[in-house]
Amino acid sequence: MAPKPLSVPCLEKAPAVFDDEYEEPTVPATIAATLEAIRENRSMTEQNLAQLRDWIAKHPHISRCRTDARFLLRFLRSKKHSFLAASQTLERYLAARILHPTWFQRLDIRDPELAELTDIGFLYALKERDANGCLVALCDWGLLDPKRFTLDHSNRMHALLLEAYGEDTLAQCAGAVIIFDFRHVTLAHHSVVSLSVLRKLAHYINNAVPIRCQGIHAVNVPSGALWIINGLVSFLNEKIRNRFSLSRDYDELAEKLDRNILPKEHGGKEPKSEHICAFREHCERYRERLLALDEMEIDLDHNEPYSRQAMLDDIDGGAVGSFRKLELD
């Protein structure tokens, strides 16, 4: 039986009634420390939601945007309830969706290309969380056929996953971890990657993605693919760079991440097919909400920092971050 689809939230920037329904996670055992770290309590949350909604209603360039608590808490929690940081991220998030429609628009699990990439196991969320409650995703990047797909397809799959789990309360608070498996990468894959595209991608990871990135793990990286890793990581901000790790294989990765939550093919308990099936069902349940995101609107033709030209200039003029060059022993 297909999962029951969720209703589509209101997109009016100043609705008569706001959807205030949201949850605070009660597990795992470390959740109290997590909530303290992001400075969350009921009073702070209600105050910030009210302030952010008032800001959206009066925003001169936002014309349509979700204002429900589940959506806005993505931004507040990822920025530890800093109103300024959350509002800036929201502006850039809305701008990114318009500037890069091939990444962020039509995130439909029924789309033939997204469905195929899901079915082959290119990217999917794992069924279980890590010890701190983080959402864990696994990307077998070499499964992206360079004769048929581009980096845009990869970015679109990642956007699908992030949006599908965007309302997940525990993921909002505890954050997310992603594993990149490069086992199947070949020389042909180098044709779909360039430093300019990696810089563009990192710009949005740094400024427009409402998620607490708690770890990026690269595993099974052939020496010829190290430049891709070095290129992307060098453009990421220092906080995210410090949460990056390189592992030779899954045995070494198991020293940093509980192997039991991984697919059976990598030493875990359940086969990859079960994880993929659960991911597909989750995306199907949120399908209508993801498609409705395309109706949010922000005007980018002005001189603000989130304008069309400012965002593109930011990317073109971006400097390479400082990071030690990763090498395989």
Commentary on this structure:
The protein is an alpha/beta fold and 329 residues long. It folds into two domains: 31-103 and 292-309, no CATH class; 112-288, Phosphatidylinositol Transfer Protein Sec14p. It is 43% helix and 9% strand. It contains 15 helices and seven strands. The strands form two sheets. A five-stranded mixed sheet has the order 2-3-4-5-6. Strands 1-7 form a two-stranded antiparallel ribbon. β4 (176-181), α9 and β5 (213-219) form a beta-alpha-beta unit. α3 (69-78) packs across α4 and α9 crosses α10. The longest helix has 17 residues, at 42-58. The N and C termini lie far apart (50 Å). Mean pLDDT is 93; it is low at 317-324.
Helix content: 40-55%
Number of strands: 7
Q: Determine the CATH superfamily of the largest domain.
A: CRAL-TRIO lipid binding domain
Q: Globular, elongated, flat, extended or rod-shaped: what is the shape?
A: globular
CATH architecture descriptor name of the largest domain: 3-Layer(aba) Sandwich
CATH domain class name of the largest domain: Alpha Beta
Domain CRAL-TRIO: 110-274
GO molecular function, one term: phosphatidylinositol bisphosphate binding
Protein name: CRAL-TRIO domain-containing protein
Pfam families: CRAL_TRIO (PF00650)
